[in-house]
Amino acid sequence: MDGQILCVGDLNPDLVVPYGEMKRALRQDLPGPTAQLLPGGGMGNTVTALGRMGLRPLILGMVGNDSTGDMIAADLQKNGVDTRFLRRQQAPAMAVVSVIEEDGEKVFFQWFPPGGQDKAFTPADFSEPVLERCSLLHLNGMVVQDGGPSARAVTEFCELAAARGIPVSIDLNLRCAQYPLTPERRALLGRVLAVASHILGSGAEEWCTLTPGRTKEQAARRWATAQNTVVCRDGAQPVLLIDRLHESRHAPPPVEVVSRNGAGDMFDAGYLARLAAGGTPREAVFHGLAVAAHAISHRQPRSVPGPAELAHLLACIDP
Ligand SMILES: Nc1ncnc2c1ncn2[C@@H]1O[C@H](COP(=O)(O)OP(=O)(O)O)[C@@H](O)[C@H]1O
Ligand SMILES: [Mg+2]
């Protein structure tokens, strides 16, 4: 495939608070860990993984015009991401505070500095030169966050890309607790899904929120057409692939899970990388499963498999 994968979505600083580890240290009267500021965001995970796999993806996203924005931009570049369309927002940017409990569970909080604002796109962000470079457009449902101008600009861009013959893929990532599914948001998401070639999503909480259906499979089938691919994931359960109305199920390779954080984002990176290399949706699902399995069995965030590790994980997947 000529051109680059263009990822549109969330980038933010993550302030990681090792609360559980600190409690343990205090009990033993030992020096505790410190909190750490890391580059985060769901699309940050996907685009960084694509960069690490050598695909030179483009990111179209927003970071703060401050030291956290500098840190994220530098990290993207270091990992092989093309940042020519990275935007700096003028208002202070939102951060995520990620508290890790004693059992390793993570709890997330959004934090806005005084005067802070959520990211907002304008039609000017989606100019012609952006499309010219792009062979595949990937976004997540978070950027269609309401019925407002930013979500409308993203929706119209997807429609334009599809009209130009550029495949659009979306991972639902609805995050309805933060971004309620208003009728206006639902209508815009419906427009994106109508032009998307690849629709990915996870669990009943995403599929059944979006579509009436008793099970996630029933809800996912609602979006399947003779032209598109629907990928319905759910943690350790087999993935339901509906490729041009043909259904199959694929179980993840067995691994020891050390951190489930960002599993879906890493699946997306594997899936998109294989599509970009000319793979079928079925092969792309296998790669998604392998890259996700690698990521969740490593403590280091956004860890991607090397060729040998990838081959081993792929061999563990029952075709
Ligand atoms: N507990 C688990 N055991 C094995 N594989 C898992 C587990 N959780 C996630 N995965 C792998 O990661 C993929 C993405 O997980 P998913 O639940 O869809 O993530 P998210 O909720 O982050 O979107 C799954 O399809 C699977 O391949
Ligand atoms: Mg997800």
Automatic annotation (TrEMBL):
Transmembrane segments annotated in the record for this chain: none
Keywords from the named record: ATP-binding, Kinase, Nucleotide-binding, Transferase
Signal peptide extent: none
Carbohydrate kinase PfkB domain mapped to chain residues: 4-302
Single GO molecular function: kinase activity
InterPro entries listed in its UniProt record: PfkB_Carbo_kinase, PfkB_dom, Ribokinase-like
A Pfam family matched in the record: PfkB
Similarity section: Belongs to the carbohydrate kinase PfkB family.
UniProt protein name: Carbohydrate kinase family protein
